[in-house]
Amino acid sequence: MTDTDEVEIPEVNYVSGSGLPIRGNDIDTDQIIPARFMKVVTFDGLGEFAFFDQRFTEDDDLKDHPFNEDQFQDSSVMVVNSNFGCGSSREHAPQALMRWGIDAIIGESFAEIFAGNCLALGIPTVTADSETIQSLQEWVDANPDEELEIDVEAEQVRYGDTTVDVTVDDAQRKALVEGVWDTTALMKSNAGAVQETAAKLPYVSDADANGSGSESSTSAD
Amino acid sequence: MSERTLYDKVWDHHTVTTLPTGQDQLFIGLHLIHEVTSPQAFGMLEERDLEVAYPELTHATVDHIIPTADQSRPYEEDAAEEMMSELEENVREAGIEFSDPDSGDQGIVHVVGPEQGLTQPGKTIVCGDSHTSTHGAFGALAFGIGTSQIRDVLATGTVAMEKQKVRKIQIDGELGDGVEAKDVILEIISRLGTEGGVGYVYEYAGEAIENLGMEGRMSICNMSIEGGARAGYINPDETTYEWLAETDYFQENPEKFEELKPYWESIASDDDAEYDDVVHIDADKLEPVVTWGTTPGQGIGISDPIPAPENLAADKQDTAQRAQEHMRVEPGETMDGYEIDVAFLGSCTNARLPDLRRAAQLVKGREVDDDVRALVVPGSQRVQETAEEEGLKDIFEEAGFDWRNAGCSMCLGMNEDQLEGDEACASSSNRNFVGRQGSKDGRTVLMNPRMVAAAAIEGTVTDVRELPEAEVTA
């Protein structure tokens, strides 16, 4: 292990950018990225397929969708309604949104796996009640070039002259603010404790409990 | 917070430490991987110069992209071949066991794990697939994860998670004729909503659950995620133990069975366990459930009227309106008689042996409607082999069904099996989202496998209880 292997994890205290509204409850991950675009072995290039079937007709003509509108092309904060990201666990969904240019999402509520996948990419999923969301969507529609700011630590969103309180799940807030949302290295550093936990489980054999990739396993180096 | 439930106990046994975020670092006893969500995770491992920490606790199969007709290599579709090759290389390099098609053990990951005895009570099980909740049927704590979390599990054998609340769903009474496990879970989702389970793990309990075999229990736990609950489980009992004893792992290691049984018994929820919420459902009152819309929560009994959007809760009206336009259904009608073009019998929800047996019983001596293309996709090669030995393949083929090889197939249309145009499909799968089965104009009606068989024969959604007995000729 050398220092070059350490991954830099930025702290995400604030996200600012112009917004775009994606209206509707229960927008599932099949809509965010249809399965046919998942026949890939990397996430590169997924951005152009975000909301594909909502954006294009059979003949590739443009449909009405915020992702197609000129005024939202530089937007980075999505404002959504309830149960956003339900369905499949595919990380391809937040990966596609991120690669399209989305840095944060404000919504009434999020499906759990989707929110977890966003966190693993450093994308805040911030919640507020339906009236707040509706006002925000209307403001974003009327002010597509103006920035809104999410203060993750203070759990506030500022737009125009308005500041509203929002909710950021405790663990998500800490992970983003302290820059520990990429958990691999952190958890890897507990390898000894992991082995101890494994060794106590009756279904894990002694040999398997040590693992093979762990640093304390016997190896030829 | 809940106390002394299976969830609490299994969680405690697997907690390594509490992370600075307040999340717990949870040890993972079984990591199942497949070709769609794992290649990027292996790529991330390579970028960071990390190895797979627990290859012995990891198991791979191929299911999402595999063709179900011609499986000869290279696969006709280049992308599918590339994904398969990538998986083959990754598991070979890491020393991960692979139930590949040549092994005769390949199949949908949530069918393969249980049938090989990898799925056991009291294990933590993850997979990059939301239907991992299936394995909760055995009293395991099982949930779907994203690709970055797959990276975490590969690299460390653990995931970072927040503990959730536990809702007990108590299903008392007995299921009537023609009513199955699938109907129970569709009813639960329509009652509690597609996001009703967010923040919860579901414990399914009660007489109706205890009376179910393992396959029915799997159908129920499988769709927990459609109700927003990341995991669902059933306490292990004699039914569980009998099933486990027949699996490879315990046939090969019979001493392990006796050794582990006390642990399995110890992790079941205590009689005085405390829950964050309890919901009661009366099994006697259920009938076959079908969906009328484009979320799994938009379900009704086969003889119930489709609801008018304006009569639904305010936040459901807009979704319902759009769903009814897409499905071309009218409030007040029932789904009985809804014309279908395709019948799909398959998926991790309902493609196990008893599912195929029950459907075959209904199909025997009948014919698929002329205007319907019908296919049966067994959940695994083992299911397929046994079904063929039992003559189920012949029954289905004689009736006009296509008999395919194992895979996810038309549940999500990642291989060649897809709806075309605005075809309507009677499907034993788990999601009726717009575009889910491969065509954005396709229309999916979710139902139990016997209802799928009945729809295939009649050409319309049909109450299986009203289908007259077929004249079976010898």
TrEMBL record, chain A:
- Where does the Aconitase A/isopropylmalate dehydratase small subunit swivel domain lie? 23-127
Q: Which SUPFAM superfamilies match?
A: LeuD/IlvD-like
GO term, biological process aspect, one: L-leucine biosynthetic process
Q: Kindly give the Pfam families that the UniProt entry links to this protein.
A: Aconitase_C
Q: In which pathway does it act?
A: Amino-acid biosynthesis; L-leucine biosynthesis; L-leucine from 3-methyl-2-oxobutanoate: step 2/4
Do you know which NCBIfam families this protein is assigned to?
leuD, PRK01641.1
Protein's name in the database: 3-isopropylmalate dehydratase
Protein species of origin:
Natrialba chahannaoensis JCM 10990
UniProtKB/TrEMBL annotation, chain B:
Which positions fall inside the Aconitase/3-isopropylmalate dehydratase large subunit alpha/beta/alpha domain?
8-459
Domain of life, per the record?
Archaea
Matching Gene3D superfamilies, A to Z? Aconitase, domain 3 (3.30.499.10)
The record's top EC class is lyase
For this protein, the Enzyme Commission number is 4.2.1.33
| Cofactor(s) required for function per UniProt | [4Fe-4S] cluster
Q: Which UniProt keywords apply?
A: 4Fe-4S, Amino-acid biosynthesis, Branched-chain amino acid biosynthesis, Iron, Iron-sulfur, Isomerase, Leucine biosynthesis, Lyase, Metal-binding
Q: Which Pfam families match?
A: Aconitase (PF00330)
Q: Which GO terms describe its molecular function?
A: 3-isopropylmalate dehydratase activity; 4 iron, 4 sulfur cluster binding; isomerase activity; metal ion binding
**UniProt record, GO biological process:** L-leucine biosynthetic process
Cofactor note (record):
Binds 1 [4Fe-4S] cluster per subunit.
Residues annotated to bind [4Fe-4S] cluster: 348, 408, 411
Hey, which pathway is this one from? Amino-acid biosynthesis; L-leucine biosynthesis; L-leucine from 3-methyl-2-oxobutanoate: step 2/4
Q: Which reaction does it catalyse?
A: (2R,3S)-3-isopropylmalate = (2S)-2-isopropylmalate
> What family is reported?
Belongs to the aconitase/IPM isomerase family. LeuC type 1 subfamily.
Q: What does this protein do?
A: Catalyzes the isomerization between 2-isopropylmalate and 3-isopropylmalate, via the formation of 2-isopropylmaleate.
Q: How does it assemble?
A: Heterodimer of LeuC and LeuD.
Family matches, as NCBIfam families: leuC (TIGR00170), PRK05478.1 (NF004016), PRK12466.1 (NF009116)
State the name under which the record lists this protein.
3-isopropylmalate dehydratase large subunit
Q: Which organism is it from?
A: Natrialba chahannaoensis JCM 10990
Provide the taxonomic classification.
Archaea, Methanobacteriati, Methanobacteriota, Stenosarchaea group, Halobacteria
Q: Which gene encodes it?
A: leuC
